[in-house]
Amino acid sequence: MRKIILIMLVGISIFTQGCTMVTTESVPSERVVEVDGAEKDTLYVRANNWMVDAFNNADSVVQFTDKESGTISGRYLLGTVSNASEYGPARRAYATIKVRVKDGASKITVTPESFTYAKGNIYTLYTEEDAKRDVDALLFSFETAMKKSEDDEW
């Protein structure tokens, strides 16, 4: 019996060795995209279309839109930190996205929500580095979408 307990303790210590719990900071990133000659309504439609394309997961939702003020906001699923198991439900990382548009310019703010993960754990699927990379990709994607003119002929 002692051997079994000793083997289990050694196995657990090897499994958890090098794992550190890390809690990310909620630091907003923003980008202003200037589009000369573009009207507010045109930029609003582009931003709305971008959100529809970017929010391609059922866990990502547009929460508020107001065309008159040129505001769109939503909650975006960045990634799954860990899958559900017998120890608990799946943990996910989200970000709040706010878009404001006016004549000639648009502004996006992406604020990742704070999340905790086990650094060095083989079961951790999403880390702070992944979140930073994905936020940068969202900002670049938004800028590209806002500068792209639509083809009105169909």
Topology summary:
Elements: H1 2-16, E1 20-23, E2 29-34, H2 40-54, E3 61-66, E4 71-82, E5 91-102, E6 105-112, E7 116-119, H3 128-147
Antiparallel strand pairs: 1-7, 2-6, 3-4, 4-5, 5-6
Task: Describe this protein's structure.
The protein has 154 residues and is an alpha+beta fold. The protein has a single domain, classed as Alpha-D-Glucose-1,6-Bisphosphate, Chain A, domain 4. It contains three helices and seven strands. The chain has helices at residues 2-16, 40-54, 128-147, and strands at 20-23, 29-34, 61-66, 71-82, 91-102, 105-112, 116-119. Strands 2-6-5-4-3 form a five-stranded antiparallel β-sheet. Strand 5 (91-102) and strand 6 form a beta hairpin. The radius of gyration is 21 Å and the shape is elongated. The termini are far apart. The mean pLDDT is 88.
Number of domains: 1
CATH architecture: 2-Layer Sandwich
Strand pairing plus helix content: what structural class? alpha+beta
Strand order of the largest sheet: 2-6-5-4-3
Ranges with pLDDT <50 over ≥5 residues?
A: none
C-alpha geometry: elongated
What are the secondary-structure elements, in order, as H or E? HEEHEEEEEH
Separation of the first and last Cα atoms: 75 Å
Helix content: 25-40%
Query: What is the oligomer described by this structure?
Result: single chain
Number of H/I helices: 3
The largest pleated sheet is described as: 5 strands, antiparallel
Q: How is the CATH topology named? A: Alpha-D-Glucose-1,6-Bisphosphate, Chain A, domain 4
Keywords: Signal
Domain DUF4468: 31-111
Signal peptide: 1-18
InterPro entries: DUF4468 (IPR027823)
